[in-house]
Amino acid sequence: xxxxxxxxxxxxxxxxxxxxxxxxxxxxxxxxxxxxxxxxxxxxxxxxxxxxxxxxxxxxxxxxxxxxxxxxxxxxxxxxxxxxxxxxxxxxxxxxxxxxxxxxxxxxxxxxxxxxxxxxxxxxxxxxxxxxxxxxxxxxxxxxxxxxxxxxxxxxxxxxxxxxxxxxxxxxxxxxxxxxxxxxxxxxxxxxxxxxxxxxxxxxxxxxxxxx
Length: 212
Prior knowledge:
This protein is α/β, with parallel strands linked by helices. The chain has a single domain, classed as Rossmann fold (3-Layer(aba) Sandwich). It is built from 8 helices and 7 strands. It has helices at 3-14, 19-31, 38-50, 65-73, 86-98, 113-116, 137-147, 173-186, and strands at residues 55-59, 78-83, 106-110, 125-130, 148-157, 191-196, 202-207. It has a 7-stranded mixed β-sheet with strand order 3-2-1-4-5-7-6, sandwiched between helices. The longest helix is centred in the C-terminal third of the chain and has 14 residues, at 173-186. It is globular and about 45 Å long.
């Protein structure tokens, strides 16, 4: 095992996942919902806490794991989660209820994100998490940047494409989209971007506040 692999393994084993999120993860795996990893969950919880988020949007519910991590970091926040899979939304509702998340703190929207997002208020959210179908990741991020307030953050897990993004030979559409997203946002004057490679990867984009 190389040093890098050892680091990944250590980070994964060192992350302590709260019991209610672990239960949601087990259910998500049964459904084939492929939840974010615990190390990535811990990162988004820290970002949620650091930003003192009160309004969060999640594109892709994933049976509730990522949403629970976000609320773990900012339990006073209100989460709006969007998914086209009724089974995943139902699982998330159950997970939130078992975690004793007050009903007023979670809003579940069934539908295609591309249909829902244009109707949401601009510059109104502290965090937007993008974890939906990877084919639409660039458009989802564009929507996310429109929805967050100045100084708000867009989070994109799985951005390393299971190792494909770092492989220059890989040229498929999804890998190219992830690669372009990372490269373009790193040089953008509109955001501060950081790329974490722990777990499945996490791209963090915080919009710059006006100095005028």
